Amino acid sequence: MNVYDFDKTIYREDSSLDFYKFNLKKNPIILMHVFSQGLAFIAYSMHLIPKTRMKTIFYRYFKHIKDMDQRVEEFWKVHEHKLMDYYLLQKHPTDVIISASPEFMLKPICDQLKVTLIASRVDPKTGVSQENCYGEEKVKRFRELFPDAQVHSFYSDSLSDTPLAKLAQESFLVTPEGIQPWPKG
Q: Going residue by residue through the chain (185 aa), what tens digit of pLDDT does each one get?
């Protein structure tokens, strides 16, 4: 089995930010949250609040989206082209995508790709986030679903995924310059 991060690994950008911008065009009222979102990001950057709390504050704008399923479907119709060619050429039904982005947001595209998804559990109505699927949490969530699985290859754009990279027989860092072996050390 091969395991992939999602944002900036098989999707060219950050899907959560793209989804926010997409919603901003459709519901400008979500701008009312920009001040609290900014403060939450600053507090997180200063290590005053955990990432999960910052994300819950950021995702509060979800309450302004009347039909989240429809909105997510619309989003993927417009943004599906941002999936990277290298992945589309090598994808396999046993692939697992593991991401810090909201599970409900990535599920339709992963279903379309016919791959398994593990992602952050976020309430699509309130934005309340459970444990962010990041760093060591990715390993924990992966092992809950696949306790004995062997990971052949792992791909990510972020060194924060080193715990998951260590599970794989081979790991790769995805950068704008291309795909390279995971840094040693």
A: 999 999 999 999 999 999 999 999 999 999 999 999 999 999 999 999 999 999 999 999 999 999 999 999 999 999 999 999 999 999 999 999 999 999 999 999 999 999 999 999 999 999 999 888 999 999 999 999 999 999 999 999 999 999 999 999 999 999 999 999 999 86
> How far are the Cα atoms of 35, 59, 90, 119 from residue 54, in angstroms, in the given order?
13, 9, 35, 17
Indicate the pTM of the whole model.
Answer: 0.93
Residue 22, H or E segment: helix 15-26
**Domains assigned to the chain:** 2-181 (3.40.50.1000)
Instruction: Please name the residue ranges forming H helices in 46-168.
Output: 51-58, 68-79, 85-90, 103-113, 136-145, 162-165
d(Cα 138, Cα 93) in Å, to the nearest integer?
Answer: 20
